[in-house]
Amino acid sequence: MSGAARLTVYSREYCHLCHDMIAALDALRSAYPFSLQVVDVDDDEALEQRYGHLVPVLVANGEEICHYHLDPAALAAYFGRIL
Question: Which of 7, 34, 69, 71 has a C-alpha 20 to 30 A away from that of 54?
Fold first, then answer.
């Protein structure tokens, strides 16, 4: 893969678990090449229906990596497959 992976966190503004996952990902920016997009599920009814009870959800290329809490092993496995 060339360039950075694009990770998406489906979240809610008032969700402390979401803020925790985003902070944990920010701390890993030096370890993995990625850009991060944060999408508020409450802004889109379809996303709210799909991810509403699971937020935060970390997704890359349509693949759910983890939800509720950052799973470092799952993230490492994802990057191991794409790098």
Answer: 34
Given a cut of 60, is residue 2 above it in pLDDT? no
Tell me the CA end-to-end span of the chain in Å, nearest whole number. Answer: 6
C-alpha pair distances (Å), 70 with each of 2, 26, 38, 58, 81? 24, 11, 14, 8, 18
**What kind of fold does domain 5-82 have according to CATH?**
Glutaredoxin (3.40.30)
d(CA 4, CA 10): 19
Domain boundary assignment for the chain: 5-82
From the list 78, 46, 53, the residue with the least C-alpha distance to 68 is: 53
